Amino acid sequence: MAIGRREVSAYMTTPIGWIILCAFVLLFSFFFVVGLLQYDQASADAVFNPYAADQLNVNDMIVAPLFGNMQVILLLAASALSMRLIAEDRRTRAIDLLLTSPVRSSEIVVGKFLGAIGFATIIASTTFLYGGILMLLGEPDPGIMFSNYLGFILLFGTLLAIGLFTSSLTENQVVALMVSFAISLMFYILGWTGQLMDDGALKTTVEYLSMLSHFEQLSKGVLRLQDIVYFLTFIGFFLFATTQRVEALRWR
């Protein structure tokens, strides 16, 4: 917890944390306003088509597209947030203090991950205002809102775990960012690759490994255990891999 608090404090006292936070708020606000304008235009057109009015849905026209558009933003935001977690400590040799302190490698890794996910939660909390506006002026499905936020945090956590692992591989933060983004993008677009394959075990496996396919189910309000297990398994795997890397640094 001490390491986690230190990492959250580092985000709040350095430009990178505020830059990512402000950029996220601006982009989320942009997509929110665009969604409202599209819904407003569709509502105006529905005046002349009574049958179209029945198809107007806040969940399908605003909530799901809003969080769907933010998936791509998360790929870069998570890589930028996690690139310094271990790479910066290695560059400044602060990692030597951690490795010689009475804490296990797993505690170092989990502490840094908790710090990153803590700041990610702060970022996610800035969107509650928009959810409140929709609840006040419209009738969005609370279940769909909840599942989208759950998927948002799970996806953010998975991408941060990947970034934490790549940050442990190098002292260069830019290299860590690029490798993390490449790995995250690969798992993101696997679903598109699977659509080009013939039906079979390989296609099923590729589609299951795709982050996009699992997030899409949550964005529709469908809470499936396999989707939650998927994200938690990825987080656990990359935290374990990072722990092994930190342990290797301890004995170098």
Description:
By secondary structure, the protein is mostly helical. The protein has one domain. It is built from 13 helices and no strands. α4 (about 60-80) packs parallel to α9 and α9 (about 140-165) packs parallel to α13 (about 225-250). It is globular, with a radius of gyration of 20 Å. The mean pLDDT is about 85.
Summarize the structure.
By secondary structure, the protein is mainly α. Helix content is 83%, strand content 0%.
Write the layout of secondary structure elements.
Elements: H1 2-12, H2 15-46, H3 50-53, H4 58-82, H5 87-92, H6 94-99, H7 105-125, H8 128-137, H9 142-167, H10 173-195, H11 201-209, H12 211-219, H13 225-250
Keywords:
single chain; 252 residues; mainly alpha; 13 helices
Low-confidence stretches: none
The topology string of helices and strands comes to HHHHHHHHHHHHH
Label the overall shape: globular
Task: Count the beta strands.
Answer: 0
What fraction of the residues are assigned to beta strands by DSSP?
under 5%
Query: Number of helical runs?
Result: 13
Average per-residue pLDDT, rounded, comes to: 84
Counting structural domains, the number is: 1
Distance between the amino and carboxyl termini: 26 Å
Alpha carbon gyration radius: 20 Å
- Percentage of residues in helical conformation: over 70%
